[in-house]
Specification:
By secondary structure, the protein is an alpha+beta fold. Helix content is 67%, strand content 7%. Helix 6 (209-235) packs antiparallel against helix 12 and helix 13 packs antiparallel against helix 20 (506-531).
């Protein structure tokens, strides 16, 4: 950790900023992100100096953990304002509810990087730089590799009885503990995630042509993603050797319902039973109804909306804690899979990974094609500008946390009018579902076939509904795709243990998922801007690299 102390005055901000820049350069920090992150640090230093007491100092601490860098600022003074960033949303285009919903999304993306706190008359600011998702993915990969090596050595050196003892008294209990913990947070986390996401979705009112085209485009892309997922599964489904190999993980007592019975049973007669019975379909219906009610509620019900957001944040933090344990859990789960099923279990996992990534690449290709066909513009400028930004989003791991950056990209690189991207990008963060839909459709169908469950035509209606609603919530909270998949598997009558098949590769798949979602958001924004004559053709055609300001 490196420390530096400067007087809390505007004249000394550049001195503190120079210390931060030199430290980041010594860490071989990404040149592409340096300018943008230094601007964030400048803003926070200026804010800290403005609210500091006379004669106070600002202490700067910089720490690094692999690819993640944290800049901590502290100073004695008045508490910082809760909302300190200007969010320019056009008044003439959107209703107050729509502007408020967009501001909430932009604020959420900013809070992923910057957090404030106030204790004992001191302000504390943490600025999270770098790529923590990259570190998480590397930790998970290391856990898989270590599990492969460890299990190979154990199976080669120890007798069968000793391996069985390790499986029964070490690896199985650890797996059970983690799965119980995952199940503990799944229902409340998904419920409040869906509830707040639907509330934001329903808050966009009085939409003009841009809004209507955006919603229509995202709905069409979600349906196409589900259909593509079904087609890819049908084309590359597991061989008969693996079909039904995990039939022991199917819950007993389940019975396939007709469409009418499914619709009737989806509405519970009380709000408690979906949680007690962990009925995913009923939980989604109640969460969606509560979200719509929150959006329609009067101003006097603002306390309920604030409470829902607070609970969403609370359980999202709980999910973060559980997610932090995943690399360690992956080691035990992968080792146990190899002990139980041999190395063919890894071929199943690899099959799923390749199939889902291939699906994401097809979705990105379709987004590129839609720009040329729907936007009627030259595709080369879009591809050359989009590909480097795709790499940045990939390692960020969340399209929500890149809302502000994506809006700058649309403005400075593509020439899209603010009248378009100030709606399409924030709204797309909760409504652009194609990546999430594709992910859950392919993995869900793949795992059910491994369990030997027959999916009938009538079952696809329920699956499609659940996938789309679950995608809304998993788009808001980074890392929650695993929770959404858990809910989907439960509704299909599969034991939670089946999630172990994809636990190790989920971190990598979510990086591709975020990239696919972001490309669709930008492509939709460009198409709408072109159709509404809100595209600066000169900026779009300009091939020279222009850094966002």
């Amino acid at each position: 950790m490196k420390k530096y102390l400067i007087p809390a005055t505007n004249e000394k901000i550049d001195e503190g900023l120079l210390f931060i820049e030199n430290t980041l350069n010594s860490y071989h920090y990404s040149k592409n992100k340096l300018k943008e992150d230094l601007e964030t640090c400048r803003h926070e230093l200026a804010l800290m100096a403005e609210y500091a007491d006379d004669g106070a100092d600002i202490q700067i601490k910089i720490s690094r953990w692999y690819t993640t860098v944290t800049v901590e600022l502290s100073s004695k003074g008045r508490t910082l304002p809760a909302e300190n960033r200007q969010m320019d949303i056009p008044n003439e285009q959107f209703s107050p509810q729509s502007r408020s919903a967009m501001k909430d999304l932009i604020k959420t993306s900013h809070s992923d990087k910057v957090t404030h706190s106030y204790r004992d008359e001191y302000n504390y600011t943490k600025i999270h730089l770098g790529n923590k998702e990259r570190l998480f993915a590397f930790r998970t990969l290391f856990a898989i590799v270590f599990a492969l090596i460890f299990s190979s050595i154990v199976m080669f050196l120890l007798p069968e009885g000793a391996v069985k003892a390790c499986e029964d008294y070490v690896f199985t209990p650890v797996q059970t503990l983690f799965l119980n913990l995952l199940q503990l947070v799944t229902a409340p986390a998904v419920f409040f995630s869906i509830m707040t996401a639907v509330a934001k979705f329903a808050s966009f009112r009085d939409l003009e042509r841009v809004g209507k085209k955006t919603i229509a485009g995202f709905i069409i892309s979600a349906i196409l993603a589900v259909l593509l997922g079904v087609f890819l599964f049908w084309l590359f489904q597991p061989s008969t050797e693996f079909a039904g190999v995990l039939s022991s993980m199917v819950k007993t007592g389940g019975k396939s319902k007709g469409i009418l019975d499914t619709i009737i049973s989806s509405v519970p007669n009380n709000v408690i039973s979906p949680f007690l019975n962990v009925d995913a379909l009923q939980l989604l219906v109640v969460a969606s109804l509560c979200g719509i009610t929150l959006a329609k509620a009067s101003k006097e019900s603002s306390i309920l909306r604030n409470a829902a957001e607070a609970l969403h944040k609370f359980f999202s933090t709980m999910v973060d804690i559980v997610t932090f344990m995943i690399p360690s859990a992956v080691f035990f789960v992968t080792s146990l899979m190899i002990f139980m099923f041999g190395f063919k279990a890894m071929f199943i996992t690899l099959h799923i990974f390749i199939l889902v990534v291939f699906g994401f690449m097809l979705m990105i290709l379709l987004s590129f094609m839609s720009v040329a066909i729907g936007g009627k513009v030259r595709l080369i400028p879009f591809v050359k500008k989009m590909v480097p930004y795709m790499y940045e989003v990939f390692w960020n791991g969340s399209s929500v946390s890149k809302v502000e950056d994506t809006m700058k990209f649309c403005d400075k690189k593509l020439g899209i009018s603010p009248k378009v991207y100030r709606f399409t990008i924030p709204f797309g963060a909760i409504a652009n579902l194609d990546g999430n839909c594709l992910y859950m459709t392919i993995v869900g169908l793949f795992l059910t076939q491994l369990c030997g469950i027959e999916i009938l035509g009538k079952d696809f209606v329920t699956i499609a509904f659940m996938v789309i609603i679950l995608s809304i919530g998993s788009a808001i909270t980074p890392g929650s795709a695993m929770l959404a998949l858990t809910m989907l598997m439960g509704q299909m009558g599969v034991s939670l243990k089946i999630i172990c098949i994809v636990l190790g590769i989920n971190a990598l798949l979510e990086l591709f998922l975020a990239m696919s979602n972001n490309v669709r958001e930008v492509a939709s924004s460009l198409i709408i801007a072109r159709q509404e004559n809100l595209l600066d053709e000169e900026t779009y055609q300009r091939m020279k690299n222009v850094e966002p300001q």
